[in-house]
Design goal:
Elements lengths: L1 E7 L2 H12 L4 E8 L2 E8 L29 H7 L4 H8 L1 E2 L10 E4 L6 H14 L5 E4 L7 H11 L4 E3 L3 H8 L8 E4 L8 H14 L2 E7 L4 H13 L4 E5 L8 H9 L3 E2 L1 E3 L8 E3 L2 H28 L1
Parallel strand pairs: 4-11, 5-8, 5-9, 6-7, 6-8, 9-10, 10-11
Antiparallel strand pairs: 1-3, 2-3, 12-13
Helix pairs in contact: 3-10, 4-5, 6-7, 8-9
Length: 311
C-alpha cells in the first residue's frame, strides 16, 4: 500500500492533489485541520498481480445467473458468486445501523433530488413516535421550496425546524439542542466533483461534528454510483442510505456504491410514506430483493420475447 500525507489550504485543494498523484482509486485514511489548512493522509492499494492459468480444456459457456440482471460490475459479481448470496453479501459489503443522531448529529448528503428531505421526515417521524423528538436543521438555502417542504413535515409532527444555511447559523442552531436530543441535518444537493460545493459541504460536516450518510436512489448506473460514493466518502461519508428501493428493479448501483465508498449499508427508502417508509438493510433481506427482482425481470423479458415470436 502506498501512503502519503497531503497538505493544502482547503479540502478541495487536497483532494485535487490526491487525485493528481494517486488517482481516483485512492482512499482517505485520516484528515484533520491545521493552522494553515488541512492535512489528509491518503493511500493507494497496489494492483493485484495478474495470474494466467494454462488452458487445459475448453471453458464451457456459463449461462447468465440472476445477478447478471442487476448490471453488477464483473469484479463485484465474481465476489458475490463465490458463496450463497446471503453469505457473500455479508463478506463483500458492510452492514451497520444508521447513526441515531444522539451522540453526534446525523447529516444526510447527496446529489440534488435523491430524497434527502423525505428521508429526514421519515427519521423525524420515527423519533417522534418513539418519544424522542429531534432537533431538525436544514442548511438548504438554495432550492426553491426546500425549507417549506421540510417545514410542512415538521409542523405536522410538532417539531421545530431550524434554518441554517451558513456555518455560523449552523453553530448557533446546534446550541438549541437539549441534552441527549437527537439532531438531524438536511443539506442542499451537492455535486461532489465541484470544488466549491464539496468544500462547503465538508465545512458544514466539520462545524457540526456530524456522522455523514450518503443518500442515493437505487437504479442509477453502477459505475456512476461508484464514482459518487468515492467522492462523498472522501468528504466524510461513512454510511449509505439508498432510496426508491421499492421502485428500482436493478440494484447493481446500490451494491457498487457500498463497495466503492466503502460505505456501510444501513436502511433504505421503500415508499413515500413518512411514518413507515424505511427498511433496515441486512444481507438476508437484500439477497431476497436481488433474487426476486431478477426472477421477475427475467420472467417479464421471456414473456415479452415470446409475445414477439407469436405475433
Amino acid at each position: 500500500m502506498r501512503v502519503k500525507l497531503f497538505q493544502a489550504a482547503t479540502m478541495a485543494e487536497a483532494m485535487a492533489q490526491i487525485r493528481a498523484e494517486l488517482g481516483a482509486d485512492a482512499i482517505i485514511l485520516e484528515q484533520h485541520r491545521t493552522r494553515h489548512g488541512v492535512e489528509v493522509t491518503a493511500a493507494l492499494e497496489p494492483d493485484e498481480p495478474l495470474l494466467i492459468q494454462p488452458l487445459t480444456a475448453a471453458t464451457p459457456f456459463a449461462a447468465p445467473g440472476p445477478l447478471d440482471f442487476h448490471n453488477i460490475p464483473q469484479e463485484l459479481l465474481q465476489l458475490l458468486a463465490r458463496t450463497p448470496l446471503e453469505q457473500s453479501l455479508a463478506e463483500a459489503l458492510s452492514f451497520a445501523p444508521l447513526p441515531s443522531g444522539r451522540e453526534r448529529p446525523l447529516l444526510l448528503c447527496g446529489p440534488p433530488g435523491v430524497g434527502k428531505t423525505l428521508t429526514i421526515a421519515k427519521l423525524t417521524a420515527r423519533l417522534v413516535l418513539s418519544g424522542t423528538p429531534p432537533l431538525v436543521i436544514t442548511t438548504d438555502g438554495q432550492r426553491a421550496g426546500a425549507v417549506e417542504q421540510l417545514a410542512a413535515f415538521t409542523r405536522v409532527m410538532g417539531v421545530t425546524l431550524a434554518v441554517a444555511p451558513t456555518q455560523a447559523m449552523l453553530a448557533k442552531a446546534l446550541t438549541h439542542r437539549n441534552p441527549g436530543q437527537p439532531v438531524l441535518i438536511d443539506t442542499a444537493g451537492c455535486n461532489p466533483f465541484n470544488a466549491d460545493q464539496a468544500r462547503q459541504l465538508h465545512q458544514l460536516v466539520i462545524q457540526a461534528g456530524a456522522d455523514m450518510a450518503l443518500v442515493l436512489p437505487a437504479g442509477l448506473d453502477a459505475a456512476e454510483a461508484g464514482d459518487l460514493a468515492r467522492a462523498f466518502a472522501a468528504l466524510g461519508a461513512r454510511h449509505l442510505l439508498p432510496t426508491r428501493l421499492d421502485a428500482a428493479r436493478r440494484l447493481g448501483s446500490v451494491l457498487m456504491a457500498a463497495k466503492a465508498g466503502p460505505l456501510s449499508l444501513t436502511e433504505a427508502g421503500i415508499g413515500p410514506e413518512v411514518a413507515d417508509g424505511l427498511e433496515t438493510l441486512t444481507p438476508e433481506g437484500l439477497a431476497s430483493r436481488l433474487l426476486s427482482s431478477a426472477q421477475s425481470g427475467l420472467a417479464q423479458g421471456g414473456a415479452a420475447r415470446s409475445g414477439k415470436e407469436t405475433a
